[in-house]
Amino acid sequence: MTMVAKAEPRNGHELAPLNARPNGAGAGAGVVTLVVPGAPGVGGARASVVSAAGGPPDAAGPVRAAWSNKMQFMLSIIGYSVGLGNIWRFPYLCQQNGGAFLIPFAIMLILEGIPLFLIELGIGQKMRLGSLGVWNTIHPWLGGIGIASCIVTFFVALYYNVIITWCFYYLFNSFKNPLPWAECPQEISNGTLGPVRECELSSETAYFWYRVTLDAAPNMEDSGGIKWWILSLLLLAWIVVFCIVMKGIQSSGKVVYFTSLFPYLVLTIFFVKGVTLKGAGAGLQHMYTPKVEKLLDPKVWLDAATQVFYSFGIAFGSLIAFGSYNPPKNNCVRDVILVSITNAFTAIYASVVIFAILGFKAVANVEKCNLKNLRLLNVTGINVTGTEYEDYMKELTDEEKSHLPLEFCNLQEQLDQAAEGTGLAFIVFTQAIVELPFSPFWAVLFFSMLLALGLGSQIGILEGMLCTIFDIEILKRIRKPYITGSVCLICFLVGFIFCTGAGEYWLKLFDSFSGTIGLVLVAFLETIAVMYVYGHKKFTQDIEDMTGYRPGWYFQITWRLLGPLLMAIVLVSSIVDMIIKKPQYGAWDASEGKTVNTDYPDWVMVIAGFMITAGLLPIPIVFCLRRFQCLKFDVNIHQGSIRRIDTTVSTKEMMGDVDFDEYHDLPQDGSDYNDDDDDDEPPNIPSANQRRKQRFAMEVMDS
């Protein structure tokens, strides 16, 4: 006799009901009957028998939030994947390695990006759960993967909103005419020429960034105190983010229409303007001139793999969350292909725009340099006209040049001035904007675009973390806005460290250590879990059931071999690089007007080690606690262990070792659990919630 137990709310440990077997294997083929030991001594019941039929994963649980339409999902995932790295990291790599970088980038996109993307999106759509629930469902021992992903995502969210804060600061200053970074200060500060000298030694844009915006401290040990203007804008940034994500995709889904589409509008405007500027061709030629010899450098391939990995936002839990809001029959394979192509196209498109304008800047700087030299020659009594200047400079010998106070004006040298990250956005590109007519207008457009890109990615990052938090059973009774507000408040308070004079140094520390190793390891374990614990055959079948497309040899090879291998190489290379090269940061030296590479203090490296450890420890801790039954968990964990035994051959050894010692009094010969009852009436078996309440009441009475 089989009794169907009443469906219970999901608690993060439950498993999605199994699907019916394919090919019509019989009327009962889609039903799995499980004997789950009950709590001894509760209501006289010895055990309950559960029948799980195939169907939608959420059929027995609460209704899960869903996208309003397909466009909302696509814009959300594009806004998350296409972020600031497409603007200030990819162009830098192309500049350093020439057009040849597109070859390793395309190969890594095919071998690493697309397969991993489909794993996260597909498993989220199949399970209809967040990151925590998915890995608990595949096997309770793997629950630490979801926790580790959430912790790493928390660290990244902390500093990512600081970048949004800086975008706000530059955006508000862009409404001034002339732009405040267009010229050096002319006033004497505190009776000294310090600011004027500092600006002359660096540049107008570098001075505005390091001295005006950040008021940078000389090192990490001298924080320089809280900068109130950064703190107030950080508060604004978190308020904006909270208002967007406070109700999950019900609120954020409406904002993505702006954060995802507006950057393309701005890029197109800059493209039309950029390609018409003098020097645009020189910038594009410099960027995409193939440097074939770079293909023999392993670091180029490592950079390509790293760029693909982080540009997709893999292992944050966000892709799993986005997929879980899709209908079960959504074609996730097509979505992955479209988003991957869009991501790559955006990176290349942004590079064209960036270097068309940087080429214009380089030509403008060379012309300024030549004009300055021409004036110096005229002052020294050498009468040279503008048309004669170039020929005259070519005829000068090195000895004659050494006696003349002339600058070396070279276009190639200007184009070789590489920058990435904040240096490209807030120093190099801002200088190019100054050279444009109606520069405030272009500045407003550019920093509005950066703000939209940053918000789009931050929405996705927080969605991955909050979806994991919402799946925690104890928090399901609390309204989403309260949980979201608490998370944002905690992030804002921790973010005080980024509002000091050493704020940029701390941001680089978090960027270098909090996510690098943790995210790669999480992605590696995710792939192993899906392919070898859940089972590659079952996952392949899931994709076919959902999309009608059965992944072929390309996906099988990349999922089971090449993907894990590439991630292992990236992980080992990152660890070796940290060991061989002592970590440093660029500290601003006001006396020289430039950044100086400085070793991190020992106590700072201890904090870095703590961040790495905090992102990795949940994985072995949860594994050990559940493997050796150090803590008593609810029955659903044992259900998951039993139900996954038939998933794949590779899981039998892991799944079969379930500790039921506490139920030693249950019959082992398959006899009826109703000791003296000869009737066919089913026993009155309490639900799991009732058993927990009774155990709690007994513990209270005992205490």
Structure in words:
This protein is mainly alpha-helical. It is built from 28 helices and 4 strands. A two-stranded antiparallel sheet has the order 1-2. Strands 3-4 form a two-stranded antiparallel ribbon. The protein is globular and about 105 Å long. It comes from Gryllus longicercus.
The count of helical stretches stands at 28
Largest sheet, strands/sense/barrel: 2 strands, antiparallel
Q: What's the quaternary structure here?
A: single chain
Number of strands: 4
Q: Kindly estimate the percentage of residues that lie in beta strands according to DSSP.
A: under 5%
Question: What structural category do the secondary elements indicate?
Answer: mainly alpha
Distance between the terminal alpha carbons, to the nearest Å? 40 Å
* pLDDT < 50 runs, ≥5 residues: 1-61, 633-683
Mean pLDDT: 79
Order of strands across the widest beta sheet?
A: 1-2
Radius of gyration: 30 Å
State the helical fraction: 55-70%
| Global morphology | globular
Organism: Gryllus longicercus
Family: Belongs to the sodium:neurotransmitter symporter (SNF) (TC 2.A.22) family.
Protein name: Transporter
GO biological process, one term: amino acid import across plasma membrane
